[in-house]
Automatic annotation (TrEMBL):
GO terms for molecular function: heme binding; iron ion binding; monooxygenase activity; oxidoreductase activity, acting on paired donors, with incorporation or reduction of molecular oxygen. Gene3D superfamilies: Cytochrome P450. Coiled coil: none annotated. Its cofactor is heme. The lineage of its organism: Eukaryota, Fungi, Dikarya, Basidiomycota, Agaricomycotina. It holds the Pfam family p450. Keywords: Heme, Iron, Metal-binding, Monooxygenase, Oxidoreductase. Belongs to the cytochrome P450 family. This is Uncharacterized protein. The keyword Heme applies. It comes from Neolentinus lepideus HHB14362 ss-1.
């Protein structure tokens, strides 16, 4: 992760680097209204809300080793059409009793 690759030496954004939103939602073409995906803002906001809800209601931690200490996760990315991490193990559990109740209310009661 090197965010400085999008900056000039003076720290300002480099205008020669394409905005990732244009590449993804504009199919890599120049930024005009005729070729930007109409669902771009909907998907951005939906993804933000989903991630915010997950982080607000769940504790996501690495699994424990034999000594009861958190395992060290190694971030390894795979390239392809979309850059993505290799599969990894983690522990996902509600962060509180209130969060667990909220999760159960949103699911079918038989799943809790």
């Amino acid at each position: 992760f090197r965010p400085e690759r999008f900056q000039r030496e003076d720290g300002m954004p480099d205008s020669n680097v394409q905005d990732p939103n244009v590449v993804v939602f504009g199919y890599g073409r120049q930024h005009t209204y005729s070729n930007i995906c109409l669902g771009r803002h909907f998907s951005d906001h939906s993804l933000y809300l989903v991630v915010a809800c997950i982080l607000a209601t769940f504790d996501i931690t690495p699994p424990l080793d034999q000594d009861g200490k958190p395992q060290k996760l190694k971030p390894v990315m795979l390239s392809g059409l979309i850059l993505h991490p290799t599969p990894f193990h983690c522990v996902i559990k509600p962060c509180s009793v209130a969060a667990a109740d909220l999760i159960c209310q949103s699911l079918d009661k038989s799943e809790c």
